[in-house]
From TrEMBL:
This is Ribosomal RNA small subunit methyltransferase H. NCBIfam families: 16S rRNA (cytosine(1402)-N(4))-methyltransferase RsmH. SUPFAM superfamilies: Putative methyltransferase TM0872, insert domain (SSF81799), S-adenosyl-L-methionine-dependent methyltransferases (SSF53335). The keyword DNA-binding does not apply. Specifically methylates the N4 position of cytidine in position 1402 (C1402) of 16S rRNA. It catalyses: cytidine(1402) in 16S rRNA + S-adenosyl-L-methionine = N(4)-methylcytidine(1402) in 16S rRNA + S-adenosyl-L-homocysteine + H(+). GO terms for biological process: rRNA base methylation. Belongs to the methyltransferase superfamily. RsmH family. Its main location: cytoplasm.
Length: 314
């Protein structure tokens, strides 16, 4: 039986601060990672003329969102898909431009807490980790088929795992006689190679599981494809808000916003600008926005959340 999809949306005040809409005309919002509908519900209640296109690749999340957002009636359209496909989804519904885009990316609490999804090392379950369970690539398939070089790269780049080469080599050796099938299989290997976690230190499997999840779901590729598509869809004055949960994602967002906001990319030393570049975004968050103390006390999982926002200029 599927666990109930219950998720506390993070940085709620900040989302309402940076995603604003006109009150004198209909407006359109794309929530590319609608999840259980928490953020969208806040915005739909505040702006009665707001229409929503909610996208998610997790069918359980969409079912919960349908319940949460039922109060808004035909103002809400929900579709299943990757958030990098938001341009195509918008076109399918005749949305040529939008007033706002929200991306709350990463794994959700319901996904982490449901042992059958295999996202968490804390509960035994199948090594799945697929956000979209229609995908053929599971975590176990990746572990059992990827080359040692690919495993080492994923562990090093996506998880910044200490001793990534040793972990990759150990995975390849172990799978020859005992293919990886459950979260316990991978936790056991982490304990063997990295040692038991010490009090006050990040548990050894945490970063290994993070790296594997990012690879299985192509999370960084999704984000890199989604940002230019989102910018193109925004009308002048429209806003985009992105909430990320680890440094790799936040760096991608920060760099994209910075580059789009730049008005000149000429090499230093030229007397006049010859590149002709025009700023297309105005960055609204001079520095990354994080959870306040009261939210941290209410929801410890808000601690790694990082929000950045920008406004379309042209």
């Amino acid at each position: 039986m599927e666990a109930a999809f219950e998720h506390i949306p993070v940085l709620r005040r900040e989302v309402l601060k940076y995603l604003t809409f006109p009150s004198d005309r209909p407006a359109r919002l794309i929530d590319g990672t609608v999840g259980g509908g928490g953020h969208s519900a806040l915005l739909l209640r505040r702006y009665p003329q707001l229409e929503l296109l909610g996208i998610d690749r997790d069918e359980n999340a969409l079912a919960k969102a349908a319940e949460t957002l039922a109060f808004a009636g035909n103002r809400v359209t929900l579709v299943r898909g990757d958030y990098s496909s938001l341009a195509g989804r918008a076109a399918e519904h005749g949305w040529e431009e939008v007033d706002g885009i929200l991306l709350d990316i990463g794994v959700s609490s319901p996904q982490l807490d449901h042992a059958g999804r295999g996202f968490s090392w804390r509960a035994e379950g199948p090594l799945d980790m697929r956000m979209d369970q229609r995908s053929e690539l599971t975590a176990s398939r990746f572990l059992n088929r990827a080359s040692e070089q690919e495993l080492e790269r994923v562990l090093r780049e996506y998880g910044e795992v200490d001793k990534s080469r040793r972990v990759a080599a150990a995975i390849v050796k172990k799978r020859e006689t005992h293919p990886f099938a459950t979260t316990a299989d991978l936790v056991g290997l982490c304990d063997e190679v990295l040692g038991k976690s010490k009090p006050g230190k990040l548990p050894a499997p945490t970063l290994v599981f993070q790296a594997l999840r990012i690879a299985v779901n192509d999370e960084l590729g999704e984000l890199e494809r989604a940002l230019p598509a989102a910018e193109k869809l925004l009308k002048k004055g429209g806003r985009i808000v992105v909430i990320s949960f680890h440094s790799l994602e936040d760096r991608i967002v920060k760099n994209y916003f910075r580059d789009a906001a730049a008005s000149c990319i000429c090499p230093p030393g030229l007397p006049v600008c010859v590149c002709g570049k025009q700023s297309t975004l105005k960055v609204l968050t001079n520095k990354v926005v994080t959870a306040r103390e009261d939210e941290l006390a209410e929801n410890r999982r808000s601690a790694p959340a990082r929000l950045r926002a920008a406004e379309k200029l042209v």
